[in-house]
């Protein structure tokens, strides 16, 4: 967590790390807890392809993601969700706590840009990162967008 905080401070982006007693497991739980729209929640999912691993940061209001569509956007032939073990090995985080600031190439949901702030993982189950959506582009290696 200290590494993330230092990185964010050095980047100059506006952010807040919010601590809470228990893990937030769904977009609806996050929306209820923070008093925001579900679309402002930004879970980070890890995908595996023949080209390697990707992070996909989506709006909590998106619903189910069409991996075939994402595969086409990335130019991959095989794309699937990474297993919990792979997520831990690749990111150092557990599923449900993956940071929205990470070193993997990222696919970002354009729906997140409708909001002044978004809320996503920090790598710690009991804390959440609040940032402006454009910070995702500054802090990550964005390789594609979901419309």
UniProtKB/TrEMBL annotation:
Membrane-spanning parts: none
InterPro entries: YbaK/aa-tRNA-synt-asso_dom_sf, YbaK/aa-tRNA-synth-assoc-dom
Taxonomy, superkingdom: Bacteria
Any Pfam family hit: tRNA_edit
Keywords from the UniProt entry: Aminoacyl-tRNA synthetase, Ligase
GO molecular function: aminoacyl-tRNA deacylase activity; aminoacyl-tRNA ligase activity
UniProt keyword Flavoprotein present: no
UniProt-recorded name of the protein: Prolyl-tRNA synthetase
